[in-house]
Amino acid sequence: MEQLIGVIFIVYISLFALATLKTFLEFQMSSYRLASNHTFIQTFFNKGNWGEYKIYTELEKVKGKKRILTNLYLPKKDGSTTEVDLVMITKFGFFVIESKNYGGWIFGNEANRNWTQSFPNKKKFKFFNPIWQNKGHIRALQETLAITDPTWMHSLIVFSNRCELKKITLTSPTVHVIKKQKIKRVLKKITAKTKPVLTPEEVEQYAQALEPYTHADEKTKELHIETIKAKLSR
Predict the structure, then answer these.
(1) Integer angstrom CA distances of residue 163 from 13, 158, 180, 229
(2) pTM score
(3) Residue 229 has pLDDT above 70, yes or no
(4) Cα-Cα end-to-end distance for the chain
(5) Burial of residue 194, with CB atoms counted within 10 A of its CB: 0-12 exposed, 13-18 middle, 19 or more buried
């Protein structure tokens, strides 16, 4: 019996090692490593980073000229910063993505300040409306790039496949709340009814204008976190 348990344990460890190696090789092949400046360890063992990485790999599959940027710390009018998880720029404009690597049941209304995450054990957690959060990101992005046309901006709130979007109420046609597995399908629907607004050269120019706001130093990140905590404590 002990020998059987030992064999099962070795097989389990071997399978885990192979799966981890496969994940590591996929990570090395993705451009996320350079875009985010995150190592495999920083990505694999951080829930937020891992969620962003999985979304990034889906965006990499989008055909045509595109630029994908991660973790942009954009300046706001009040002197603070706002952190944008992901921005993909294509000829159809800017796809501004807020990543939510959450599990459980998700309930939310675009008009309400807080949304709810619920679990089978009856535990519930409130979190700030991600649509409002992403609206702030889009506003900062437009101000940074001096873009006045709101139709260039597409807001996507992307949740983990582990969750269930139980009841989500939306009112804005340019806002999309989806699970990661539906990214490609939703992007295809958006682009099918959207006219191109940028040339390949403009896509590159806007991406270059945003690159200085990526790879923020620790001081910028810490100040950003302190500002968020101060707002939540009011």
Answers:
(1) 28, 11, 10, 26
(2) 0.88
(3) no
(4) 60
(5) middle
